[in-house]
Amino acid sequence: MVCEAQSGKSAIIPYLAQAPSRKRSSLVAHRRRAPRPGRFHAPHGPPASPDVVTVTDSITLADRIEDLLPQTQCTKCGYAGCRPYAEAIASGEASYNQCPPGGAEGIARLAALLSRPLIPLNPENGVERPRPVAVIDETLCIGCTLCMQACPVDAIVGAPKQMHTMIAALCTGCDLCVPPCPVDCIAMVPVTGEHTGWDAWSQPLADAARERYEARAARLAREREAAEARAAARRAPGAAPSAAAASQAAATADAPAALSATPADDPEAKKRAIIQAALERARKKKEELAAQGQGPQNTQQVSADVQAQIDAAEARRRRLGIAQDGVDPGPAAPAAEDAARNPSPES
């Protein structure tokens, strides 16, 4: 494949020669079908011949490294996703043996690209294993949506306070949905037998996972922009008085109902009882799994965003007076006071 730069000189793109043969055609198709923004541009100067692809921005080393990663976005490498890890390898900040889903073959691919020796997988990042798929115990699910927020490829469907389910065909086995679950109702079940690493994965699956990951990132960006626009509209002159009036009217309407409500028909009391029962069932199941030597996976590589969601869920449970593992934290717990002063937007 010949690449013509702005200067008119020709160069050979080396990554196609160094990539595995089974992946070479998919790389070419991917580059022609869905180029990344800012990577390919319209040529300047005289038109090129039909068999020459003219570009003005060559593919970077980080791009070529990313193309060799399995795109599970599991963060086990110590970075937020495959792209940041690829950039860290290219800059020399990270080693090329930190990707457990890629396994030994993934390390061999990167070593060939970088002209480096073969080295074993770093055990601090995990172990090469058969690819698992997340399975949600729907009888224990309480509909908190934390697993949906943690899934990097939108493989979980559900709604708040409704049962969630996993789309097995879309799951990359990243384990990221397990730590946020407050009732431990998610299990990682191996589905590839003895096959591990790239033998348990494939290039089409990796390409599809990357597309879903990028589509999710774009959707979250749109949602953030829409939320910021709504917040700006509420802060605009003339919007504050109407919002305050609506809030006062709602408080006035709720006051008689709160005075007339009895503990028997208190919806908050019913809600706490239902959640407490679900937590009690989950606690018993957790004890059974602990007795068998099983427990949550990937708890050492939890990102800051996921940990913040877990902390927010814990604060909401304390604020509602819900005990965890049979211990009532009490209304005077410091976390409950912080949550009361700074309520989460999800509560």
From TrEMBL:
User: Where is the sequence biased in composition, kind Basic residues?
Assistant: 23-42
The record's listing under Gene3D superfamilies reads: 3.30.70.20, Electron transport complex subunit B, putative Fe-S cluster
Q: Which Pfam families match?
A: Fer4_21, FeS
Establish whether keyword Thylakoid is in the entry. Answer: no
Give the GO molecular function terms. 4 iron, 4 sulfur cluster binding; electron transfer activity; metal ion binding
Show the ranges annotated as biased composition (Low complexity).
323-337
Keywords assigned by UniProt? 4Fe-4S, Cell inner membrane, Cell membrane, Electron transport, Iron, Iron-sulfur, Membrane, Metal-binding, Repeat, Translocase, Transport
Q: What is the protein name given in its UniProt record?
A: Ion-translocating oxidoreductase complex subunit B
- What species is given as this protein's source? Paraburkholderia saeva
Classification from the root reads: Bacteria, Pseudomonadati, Pseudomonadota, Betaproteobacteria, Burkholderiales
